[in-house]
Amino acid sequence: MDPKSFGKVAVLMGGRSAEREVSLMSGAGVLKALQGQGVDAHAFDPAERDLSELKRKGFKRAFIALHGRFGEDGTVQGALELLGIPYTGPGVLSSAIAIDKVMTKRVWLAEGLSTPRYVLLRKGAYTPEQVAAVPRELGLPLIVKPAREGSSIGLAKVTQAKAMAQAVEAAAALDCDVLCEQFIAGDEVTCPVLGSGDSAQALPVIRIVAPEGNYDYQNKYFTDDTKYLVPCGLPEGEEAAIQALVLKAYQVLGCRGWSRADVMIDAATRTPYLLEINTSPGMTGHSLVPMSAAAAGIGYEALCLRLLAAARLDPEPNRAG
What we know:
Layout: E1 8-12, H1 20-36, E2 40-44, H2 53-56, E3 61-64, H3 75-83, H4 92-99, H5 101-110, E4 118-122, H6 128-138, E5 142-146, E6 156-158, H7 164-172, E7 177-182, E8 186-194, E9 201-202, E10 206-209, H8 217-221, E11 227-229, H9 238-252, E12 258-266, E13 272-278, H10 288-295, H11 300-309
Parallel strand pairs: 1-2, 1-3
Antiparallel strand pairs: 4-7, 5-6, 5-7, 8-9, 8-10, 8-12, 10-11, 12-13
């Protein structure tokens, strides 16, 4: 991996999503790491510059450090495909599916993978009676969140039925689809995956212990009160089972390059349940992929270089004749 062989590299950061602030932090870390290893890397904010500049300015690769919509949802990936610029992370289809938590669940359930039960409410189409019925179907507490946001933005834990309407309204303000999800009480863990196809490898599992069990936006990025345990300290065999589950979840979505899946382990049954998969994970000082990679002996700079080396375009379909 000769850093000079990558040519001029754009670190896509910032963007227009609700996660812009986190993306800027991720991008700054990646940019510094790549430049520190001799890569000709430059910051590029799609919210301030047209993506067509990438071609005109001679960029040869793109490291996607964008999070959420217009960066992690297949849109930027599609633009880079048209420009012919290889990029980090999963391709167009995988990114588009993974950003949608409901569609992701449908794929996982079709493949027999465990994920919490859910109810989908579509903005403008649900009635007060349907909202009131959700706690009876899923039980309390339950989780309400926008179907296509990350970093716990718009997420609410509903403990009383009377709080449902407000939680749904808040989520609907951010997305046209509102996901109401069964709450799984137990250990919260996350597991990154690197690579593609049969060569993909799950990294060490991280167990997350947040203040009062509230792993929200603030506790994810801006406090030091959350504890991240790696080694995770789970009972023997559980970590391997979670890694196998996450690897399967990654592969059935057709992911490549890297991603990170979040999992809840039921305290009573010890059954792991897939929550979601992030196809452009955070790379900030509080981020979990670098933490897990370090436990596997891969430092931050080496991780960034490895991800950049794996940048590619979607394979072209075979054409008869």
